[in-house]
Write a structure and sequence with these properties.
Helix content: over 70%
Structural class: mainly alpha
Order of helices and strands: HHHHHHHHH
Shape: rod-shaped
Distance between the termini: 170 Å
Radius of gyration: 45 Å
Length: 275
């Protein structure tokens, strides 16, 4: 009996020891799991922050590009296109605009109130005061007043000579109105020509880079093509700007020529009526 009791006691002790060991292992596992989860979260945190950092940097670059002034953008594109080919295009714009401004100012100063001038001349002619009519023409700016002055200066030589003087001097004034237009048209043609030439040379250089690299890399091709096409873009922009002003100048000249022709006819009618 004593042996049985001793055996049961030993079995109970072993069972209790196994139970305590299992409970200790369960507690250790439960304590380890939160630590592992926290460690995994800590490792994942930088990975989650990295895309956010990249997004922030991209947004900063986009904001910086958006805040660039128009002058800064033009300067960058000018440098990318290459000063060797962009400079001739820029010179075409500078010289062309200088001639355009000169023509616009000249034509605006050449505008005359023809009807008011004819009324003043008719008043003097009716009184026989041709010197007063000539003085009025001298004090009036514009090609129309100059033509009338030349006619009045030859009024004593007969109406036929007056008509010849008006016609001849009208041609002189028309040539003055059209002065420098050939140079403006030259710069309109040169600007895109320089741009196309720069593009062709840039394409050749791009193919040279491809040959040197030994492979058709999109980066090499895209970079060379971009630089080459910038010269054409700027050349076309310059040509368009100058062409717009050129057409405006032509329209202004046509208007002044029409005034000269109509005014000359009315001027001759006044002289015939009062001679």
């Amino acid at each position: 009996m004593k042996k049985v009791i001793a055996f049961m006691s030993i079995v109970g002790l072993l069972t209790f020891a196994n139970f305590n060991s299992a409970m200790a292992q369960d507690n250790t596992a439960e304590a380890t799991e939160p630590a592992a989860v926290e460690q995994a979260d800590e490792q994942a945190a930088p990975e989650a922050v990295a895309p956010e950092a990249e997004t922030t940097e991209a947004e900063a670059v986009a904001e910086e590009e958006a805040t660039k002034s128009f002058h800064q953008v033009l300067k960058e594109k000018y440098i990318q296109g290459g000063a060797g080919w962009m400079t001739p295009v820029l010179l075409c714009l500078i010289f062309g605009m200088a001639l355009v401004i000169e023509r616009v100012l000249y034509l605006n100063m050449a505008s005359t109130n023809v009807n008011k001038l004819l009324e003043g001349i008719e008043d003097f002619v009716k009184k026989g005061n041709y010197e007063g009519a000539k003085e009025l023409c001298r004090n009036t700016r514009g090609p129309v007043a100059s033509i009338f002055y030349q006619g009045l200066d030859r009024v004593n030589e007969g109406l036929e000579n007056v008509e010849k003087a008006v016609t001849s001097y009208g041609g002189v004034q028309m040539a003055r109105l059209e002065s420098n237009l050939t140079w403006i048209s030259l710069f309109i043609a040169l600007a895109p020509s320089f741009g196309f030439l720069g593009t062709v040379v840039g394409m050749v250089q791009a193919f040279d880079d491809i040959e040197a690299a030994g492979d058709i890399s999109p980066t090499v091709v895209a970079g060379g093509m971009k630089v080459a096409l910038l010269t054409t873009v700027f050349g076309l922009i310059v040509a368009i700007i100058l062409q717009i002003f050129y057409n405006y100048i032509l329209t202004k000249i046509e208007s002044l020529v029409a005034q000269m022709e109509d005014g000359s006819i009315s001027f001759m009618d006044i002289l015939v009526k009062n001679k």
